[in-house]
């Protein structure tokens, strides 16, 4: 009765089911690991935002790569803004998803070193070749507080570092690039300014990173594992249905063969 399982159709169906099971198990674990990473990142953001502020030079130095455990740490830096080397970072969105630019201004520290400060978001110019209207940075000595961030790279951010851009416009916030442009020693990473707030609210400060939502990764993981369990169950149901249909067909054939011929029938 089960010899039909050796037919070409059923062999292919069985092989597909056997392939789907490990694939969907792996997809479930992939989503589960994404959930774990999101939970860990949320905890890291919350801990670093709650930690007290420290001088920026305690966490970074020229050529330093900011490690993930220091992302979003609260830091302070005291110096004077160098507006002559200010640049804007293209294709950045505001808190309400408007497309514009980020204003990146060098802050010259007392020892002559520089730390790059992302002062916030402003609308882009009417055309891509013009420099946007940027509120001037405060004059004189100032103490900036903000979140420490790592240098942006194409590999980490997915943003292409386009060449041939208009003067004073960049695609990435990268201390090595800015050091080459400014001609001064620049600390690794940059500060995402949170205080003091800009007069008139422009540039708009960068919103605090989301550390509350965890996404639907765990739900997706459970769904993939339920699909995994459904494959053998579905295969068994199909086999039982096929057996039932074949038995019904066989019983129908037997009943036809057992029906007596009408009286008077001739050979």
Helix content: 25-40%
- What is the approximate shape? elongated
In total, the number of strands is 8
Alpha-carbon Rg, integer: 33 Å
Number of distinct helices: 4
List the strand order in the largest sheet: 2-4-5-8-6
> Which sheet architecture does the biggest sheet show?
5 strands, mixed, barrel
Total domain modules? 2
The H/E string reads HEEEEEEHEHEH
Uncertain segments are: none
Strand content: 15-25%
Structural class of the helix and strand makeup?
Answer: alpha/beta
Q: Give average pLDDT, whole number.
A: 92
InterPro entries: Surf1/Shy1, Surf1/Surf4
Pfam families: SURF1
Protein name: SURF1-like protein
Keywords: Cell membrane, Membrane, Transmembrane, Transmembrane helix
């Amino acid at each position: 009765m089960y010899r039909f399982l050796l037919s070409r159709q059923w062999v292919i169906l069985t092989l597909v089911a056997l392939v789907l099971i490990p694939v969907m198990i792996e997809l479930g674990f992939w989503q589960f690991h994404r959930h774990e990473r999101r939970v860990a990142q949320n905890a890291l953001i919350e801990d670093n935002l709650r930690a007290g502020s420290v001088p920026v030079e305690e966490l970074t130095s020229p050529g330093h790569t900011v490690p993930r455990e220091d992302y979003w740490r609260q830091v302070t830096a005291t110096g004077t803004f160098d507006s002559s080397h200010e640049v804007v970072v293209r294709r950045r969105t505001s808190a309400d998803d408007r497309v514009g630019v980020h204003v990146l201004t060098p802050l010259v520290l007392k020892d002559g070193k520089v730390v790059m400060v992302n002062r916030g978001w402003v609308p882009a110019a009417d055309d891509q070749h013009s420099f946007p209207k940027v509120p001037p940075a405060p004059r004189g000595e100032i103490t900036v507080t903000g979140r420490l961030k790592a240098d942006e790279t194409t590999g980490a951010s997915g943003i292409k570092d386009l060449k041939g851009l208009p003067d004073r416009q960049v695609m990435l916030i990268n201390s090595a690039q800015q050091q080459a442009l400014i001609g001064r020693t620049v600390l690794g990473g940059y500060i995402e300014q949170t205080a003091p707030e800009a007069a008139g609210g422009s540039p708009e400060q960068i919103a605090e990173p989301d550390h509350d939502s965890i996404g639907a990764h765990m739900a997706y993981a459970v769904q993939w594992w339920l699909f995994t369990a459904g494959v053998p169950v579905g295969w068994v149901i199909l086999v039982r249905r096929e057996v039932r249909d074949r038995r019904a067909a066989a019983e129908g054939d037997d009943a036809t063969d057992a029906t007596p011929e009408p009286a008077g029938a001739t050979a």
